[in-house]
Protein: Amino acid ABC transporter ATPase
Organism: Salinisphaera japonica YTM-1
Amino acid sequence: MLKLERVDACYGSFKALDAIDMTIEAGELVVLLGANGAGKTTLFNTVSGLHRPSAGRINVAGRDVTGAKPSALVASGVVQCPEGRKLFPDMSVMKNLWLGGYVHRGDKRAMQKTLDDILAMFPILAEKKNEAAGSLSGGQQQMVAIGRALMGRPKLLLLDEPSLGLAPLIVKQVFETVAEINAAGTTVLLAEQNAYAALKIASRAYVIENGRLTIEGDRESMLGNEAVRKAYIGA
Ligand code: ATP
């Protein structure tokens, strides 16, 4: 589904991603662990076309998409759900969701079908569909952000820190939702600081440090890895 080969990304002369090699198979749920500033968002923005790589190749579903525009990547099934949700707070929940469906290019029937599926998945959003997105709780706003991404019918969903700032009980619900989306067939790359909860639903994980992937492995090996436990999981 996704293959990165020796990908670099820079901000001016600062190299934020350094020779990233990453492969994600269709159907996987893979976690990207890293501290603040390690390069997770830059990696996501580079895959989704928001940031141009300065070296390397990016392949999605067998096609070379290096340097492709975000709109082309959305059309090929890569959808990013950004850190901090980035909703339009004064617009209704419904309008926020509808915006994520622009990829359907005016096919209102397809959009309505996707919207119905999403509202069935998040009944609370159906209840609050006419309320301003900014008036919802943090967890509900995260559901809107995830729902908006799903409106693009992603094959590969890039989820950037969906649990950020949420209460533990809500975090649990968010992870259950992510597992459900993956079980329904969407490949997921999940950036998280909440390492233990993320690893519990993932098949594999990578660790990024200072723009380099330093550790990778399946869930069990990551959970048992001393360095991973020390840096990201704690006791
Ligand atoms: P966080 O969890 O804090 O968002 P992150 O792992 O997503 O962290 P990035 O946001 O990708 O990290 O940042 C990687 C590095 O690139 C950091 O050193 C950051 O300061 C730098 N950086 C990010 N965006 C820019 C920018 N627009 N201009 C210059 N440097 C940037």
